[in-house]
Amino acid sequence: MKESVNILIVGVGGQGNILFSKILGDVFLNTGYDVKISEVHGMAQRGGSVVTYVKAGRKVFSPLIDKAEADYIIAFEKLEALRWIEFLKKEGFLIYSDYEIPPIGVITGMYEYPDVDKIVKQLGVKFCKIDILSLLSKAGNPRVQNTVMLGVFSKFMEIEENFFKKAIENNVRSEFVEINLRAFEIGRSVDLGEVRI
Amino acid sequence: MRRLMLGNQAVARGCFEAGVKVATAYPGTPSTEITEYISNYNEIYCEWAPNEKVALEVAIGASIYGKRAICSMKHVGLNVAADPLFTVSYTGVNAGLLIAVADDPGMHSSQNEQDTRNIAKAAKVPVLEPADSQECIDFVKKGFEISEKYDTPVILRLTTRVSHSQSVVKEGIREEVDYEYKKDIQKYVMMPAMARKRHEVVEKRLNDLREFAEGTDLNRIEEGKTNLAFIAAGIAYQYVKEAYPDAWVLKLGMVWPLPKKLIMDFCSRFEKVYIVEELDPFLEENIKAMGIANIVGKEVFKLTGEYSPSFIKSAVEKIYTEIPYSIAQQIPPRLPVLCPGCPHRGIFYTLSKIKDIIITGDIGCYTLGALSPFNAMDTCVCMGASVGMAHGISKASNNGKKAVAVIGDSTFVHSGITGIIDAVYNKSDIIVLILGNSTTGMTGHQDHPATGYTIRGEETYKLDLLNLCKTIGCSVVEEINPYNINENLNKINELLKVPGVKVLIAKAPCRLHKRYKYTTLKRYVDKTKCKNCKLCLSLGCPALSLKDIPVIDQNLCLGCGMCESVCRFGAINSVKE
Ligand code: SF4
Ligand code: SF4
């Protein structure tokens, strides 16, 4: 892996950002890095926009990732991918789920849900779009989107697969380990060549 | 073993290792998890107190008895606890007393951005400020040592980014510490004659602590390779190190009282020294007061919100990072909303249908009633303020404007009770809606005296809000079901004409709390009956959205039935799971 890596995990409250970042943090820790993770709590848990920062490197000081500093943005919801796009480095990579959760303003008709795919293409960002609903139906449980995404992301890191699996086992409640490992495999089996568009 | 730990979890770990015996708190983001993690250690007695003042008083009692104690709260909680704080500074302690206070720069979940260091200085209490999780563990232990050695309570100041960041720590073992209780009315009974003497002791103690600050390794100079020099503490230190790894830094672990000689010596070595601190110019003003002039502070760094490494760079060198990808188009905001099935929704929907009332709100999930689609709240000031403010409005308007206070059950116990007593005593004409969801929802489902459970989930005496309100003299006290929208609308309209303090307890436990089981009948929209009037959407339930006609997301719907009851065409029906 590189000297250091900055990862932004974005989504909507309740989508499992924090578990994702914990697992990822463990992976980096066990491969010998210094790690910092910063989470947002409180109001954001009530269906608001949430972001978690994961930073790994030889020595990490600030737990924050600034605008134009993220190597990767992993978005669990399409619109949130756009909201945080300014945080991506020029050579950074966006991995987003095409899951749609309309915010209240869209529900009540005040705003329109933008055409995310079109904007992402226009921006010229390097991206990987995950057709999450079909993957989740394979997994047989809508609550494991985060581990499916982790499986996809693991292919971007030059870290052995086993580190990820161990970290899942360590951070997920025992009765859910199996389904999460399956979800991870499903994510890992996504053909990046195909989805990179 | 190296492991990742949340700042708050590390504070709890530090308490365990330091032999703490008593931990108290009222939940408040970003401090809540300290006490939650402590509750996993059976060696420590811990509790949720009804408010921060009581929590601190309990911890003071434990400390005087001879057991190390910690009391945790968020910054605004310290205002509630200020009364005992200013006096425990006089009595001092027996076993160590630590007060962990988490500030929230950037107001991720707070109603203001106050800086705890100002209160600490006013109360003449020393302050330690850790910069990562390892320091959270170390400074807790150090804090207890200072507390006992200098006979003072110690404040551990945290900020959101320290409390809610995970970084690497090494765990240690627990050390048992016990002191004997000795009666000492000169020290512990603060009536004027004794307090006058104690004030002298406090001033001397501050001088001793100043001396200590000079020599302690809590404060250290990190040598650099350039001429750039900074003074920083807490998370701001990390931002400085990231922005300028080669600069000189005076890192302060103890931010009050300050080491004057150390600071003067450091500053004399450089042409100018940047002082980097979030929120108030606390270090800056106190350093200026030492007669040091070559410092740069708030003239380049902002007074509001959080900092970041690139913010520091842009302030120091006017360097701005170019943003490669940005979007011209406005993105729909994603504000927090009441959860699907939330019982509060029914109350705010009902209130939004009543004209000519002023709704005084309070702190909790239900503060979201102020936002669209309900817009059913006029004020929100602090914990418990809704009741007193409603009373004030009704008196100021000669009861011309009807005031309705909305307050959660946890908040009511925290500081709503005294407001009601005042309103009854002074013959007010207000309605108080207690939203009894049987938990403290916003901070993540903590128990309180009206839930009937302790922090560890043991059953306990359950405060009966209905009888309590009757006893303190409210003219009407009734329980209502928040899901019965039409019935409640009539009831509130009726009560607006009745004199006295009327209390309606909207009783329905939080739908997301694992303790309360609901039988769920998920709803769906029957396409053949729906007239697309969109009335159901005005409930603002996240499970309902508009495709061609409204649809219900079966993954999100919790089957509360509220949408079914507002649909005038019977188009929303239920399916059995
Ligand atoms: S309230 Fe009933 S009729 Fe109106 S849009 Fe909703 S489901 Fe359709
Ligand atoms: S029943 Fe209706 S209001 Fe209640 S959670 Fe389901 S969609 Fe929302």
TrEMBL record, chain A:
<dbReference type="InterPro" id="IPR019752">
    <property type="entry name" value="Pyrv/ketoisovalerate_OxRed_cat"/>
</dbReference>
<protein>
    <submittedName>
        <fullName>Indolepyruvate oxidoreductase subunit beta</fullName>
    </submittedName>
</protein>
<keyword id="KW-0560">Oxidoreductase</keyword>
<dbReference type="InterPro" id="IPR052198">
    <property type="entry name" value="IorB_Oxidoreductase"/>
</dbReference>
<dbReference type="Pfam" id="PF01558">
    <property type="entry name" value="POR"/>
</dbReference>
<feature type="domain" description="Pyruvate/ketoisovalerate oxidoreductase catalytic">
    <location>
        <begin position="13"/>
        <end position="188"/>
    </location>
</feature>
<dbReference type="InterPro" id="IPR002869">
    <property type="entry name" value="Pyrv_flavodox_OxRed_cen"/>
</dbReference>
Automatic annotation (TrEMBL), chain B:
<keyword id="KW-0560">Oxidoreductase</keyword>
<dbReference type="Pfam" id="PF00037">
    <property type="entry name" value="Fer4"/>
</dbReference>
<feature type="domain" description="4Fe-4S ferredoxin-type">
    <location>
        <begin position="548"/>
        <end position="577"/>
    </location>
</feature>
<keyword id="KW-0249">Electron transport</keyword>
<keyword id="KW-0813">Transport</keyword>
<feature type="domain" description="4Fe-4S ferredoxin-type">
    <location>
        <begin position="521"/>
        <end position="542"/>
    </location>
</feature>
<keyword id="KW-0408">Iron</keyword>
<dbReference type="InterPro" id="IPR002880">
    <property type="entry name" value="Pyrv_Fd/Flavodoxin_OxRdtase_N"/>
</dbReference>
<keyword id="KW-0411">Iron-sulfur</keyword>
<comment type="subunit">
    <text>Heterodimer of the IorA and IorB subunits.</text>
</comment>
<dbReference type="InterPro" id="IPR017896">
    <property type="entry name" value="4Fe4S_Fe-S-bd"/>
</dbReference>
<dbReference type="GO" id="GO:0043805">
    <property type="term" value="F:indolepyruvate ferredoxin oxidoreductase activity"/>
</dbReference>
<keyword id="KW-0004">4Fe-4S</keyword>
<comment type="function">
    <text>Catalyzes the ferredoxin-dependent oxidative decarboxylation of arylpyruvates.</text>
</comment>
<dbReference type="Pfam" id="PF01855">
    <property type="entry name" value="POR_N"/>
</dbReference>
<dbReference type="InterPro" id="IPR011766">
    <property type="entry name" value="TPP_enzyme_TPP-bd"/>
</dbReference>
<keyword id="KW-0479">Metal-binding</keyword>
<dbReference type="Pfam" id="PF02775">
    <property type="entry name" value="TPP_enzyme_C"/>
</dbReference>
<dbReference type="InterPro" id="IPR029061">
    <property type="entry name" value="THDP-binding"/>
</dbReference>
<dbReference type="InterPro" id="IPR009014">
    <property type="entry name" value="Transketo_C/PFOR_II"/>
</dbReference>
<dbReference type="InterPro" id="IPR017721">
    <property type="entry name" value="IorA"/>
</dbReference>
<dbReference type="InterPro" id="IPR045025">
    <property type="entry name" value="HACL1-like"/>
</dbReference>
